[in-house]
């Protein structure tokens, strides 16, 4: 309990600066979460993407960065019919691909610009307006700062983008902040970035040193930094037509996570084309994820080495039968996913 002097100080500051400026820590509501559309990724993040915080998704080209974000938007649109997104398309916006991944593009506002100042201003205005539920920048390397844009190709400029980015994050903290005493719709904020070779950097164990453009300020500002890479291709046999490449395994690693343990790793089987095994273009192998995470968190029971799995009164003999049942029954998958999320929340 606070002392009378502490409560008097609290009342004085709140009167001068506004109600809710100073609050008791035990009364602060838990961090809001947004699903990623992948149960494995949600588990790795500590229950989903943290709301009202800035997130960086970084990786090599064609590793699945934009796909992860589209699937995130699609999953949250399914949960909330009013979920609205501002997408800053510095590299263009592929409407057909977004729709293949399940996005309702009628609820996505697209701002096409590669002007860094224009993009950041739009993001700050959107965050402050509370008119959108998600802000996505795709992607940082395609932006150009005005100082750099105004120079000729033969003129040298030192990190103007990093300076503008540092200023953006100093402003962003205030506009993305939400009340700690009143219920407000949370905001999902994602910036996509790409690895670059760090010339002259130290390379332990012979690995190529890497860096992400934007300077060091953003590394401190981001609440979560997620590394995305492709580990292998998914090839399946087509009867009488040989082998077709229909997907890839996306590896995810949290480089930084201020609300859950960092350096966690997960994998997602993603299909970018229809597969002979029944997956459609744009699908995750959600059944396999649900089965694995359900067993990991004790939501699904496994009877020793006998291979029997059970959830409530339902039982399956073998992992294949469990995955098949989850695939055929969306309500079963949703119920298991919900209980896994509840188990994560209790473990925090």
SSE series: HEHEEHEHEHEHHEEEHEEEHEEEHH
Whole-angstrom Rg: 23 Å
Shape: globular
Total DSSP helices:
11
Strand order of the largest sheet: 5-4-6-7-3-10-11-12
For the record, the count of structural domains works out to 2
Strand count: 15
CATH class category label of the largest domain: Alpha Beta
What separation lies between the terminal Cα atoms? 24 Å
Biggest sheet details = 8 strands, mixed
Q: Enter the CATH topology name of the largest domain.
A: Rossmann fold
Named CATH architecture of the largest domain: 3-Layer(aba) Sandwich
Helix content: 25-40%
DSSP strand content: 15-25%
Unreliable stretches (pLDDT < 50, length at least 5) are none
The CATH H-level superfamily of the largest domain is P-loop containing nucleotide triphosphate hydrolases
Structural class based on helices, strands and sheet pairing: alpha/beta
Mean pLDDT: 90
């Amino acid at each position: 309990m606070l002392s009378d002097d502490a409560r008097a100080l609290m009342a004085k500051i709140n009167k001068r600066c506004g109600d809710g400026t100073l609050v008791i820590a035990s009364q602060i509501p838990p961090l809001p979460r947004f699903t990623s559309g992948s149960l494995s990724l949600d588990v790795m993040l500590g229950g989903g993407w943290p709301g009202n915080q800035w997130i960086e998704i970084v990786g090599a080209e064609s590793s699945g960065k934009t796909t992860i974000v589209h699937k995130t938007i699609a999953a949250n649109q399914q949960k909330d019919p009013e979920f609205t997104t501002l997408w800053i398309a510095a590299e263009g916006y592929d409407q057909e691909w977004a729709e293949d991944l399940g996005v309702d593009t009628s609820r996505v506002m697209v701002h096409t610009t590669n002007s860094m100042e224009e993009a950041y201003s739009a993001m700050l205005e959107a965050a402050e307006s509370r008119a959108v539920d998600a802000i996505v920048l795709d992607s940082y390397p395609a932006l150009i700062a005005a100082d750099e844009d105004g120079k000729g190709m033969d003129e040298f400029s030192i990190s103007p983008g990093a300076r503008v980015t540092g200023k953006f994050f100093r402003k962003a903290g205030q506009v993305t902040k939400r009340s700690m005493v009143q219920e407000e719709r949370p905001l999902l904020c994602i910036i996509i970035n790409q690895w670059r070779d760090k010339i002259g950097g130290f390379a332990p164990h012979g690995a190529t040193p890497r860096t992400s453009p934007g300077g060091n300020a953003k590394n401190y500002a981001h609440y979560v930094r997620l590394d995305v890479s492709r580990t292998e291709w998914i090839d399946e046999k087509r009867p009488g037509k040989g082998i077709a490449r229909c997907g890839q395994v996306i590896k995810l690693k949290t480089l930084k996570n201020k609300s859950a343990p960092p350096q966690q790793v997960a994998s997602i089987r993603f299909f970018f084309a229809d597969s002979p095994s029944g997956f459609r273009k744009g699908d995750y192998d959600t059944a396999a994820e649900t089965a694995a995470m359900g067993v990991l968190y004790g939501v699904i029971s496994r009877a020793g080495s006998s291979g029997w799995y059970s959830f409530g009164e339902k039982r399956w003999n073998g992992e294949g039968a469990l995955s098949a049942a989850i695939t055929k029954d969306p309500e079963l998958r949703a119920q298991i996913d919900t209980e896994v999320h509840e188990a994560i929340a209790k473990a925090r």
